[in-house]
Amino acid sequence: MVLPVHGCVRCVASCAALRQLSALHATPPLSCLFPLPGLGDEVEEALAAGDREHAAEEVGDLLFAVTNLARTLKADPEQCLRATNAKFERRFRHVEAALSAKDVPLRRAGLEAMEGLWQAAKVREAEAAESPLTSCSADGGGAAGETRS
Question: Please, is 117 exposed, middle or buried when counting C-beta atoms within 10 Å of its C-beta (0-12, 13-18, 19+)?
Answer without folding.
Answer: buried
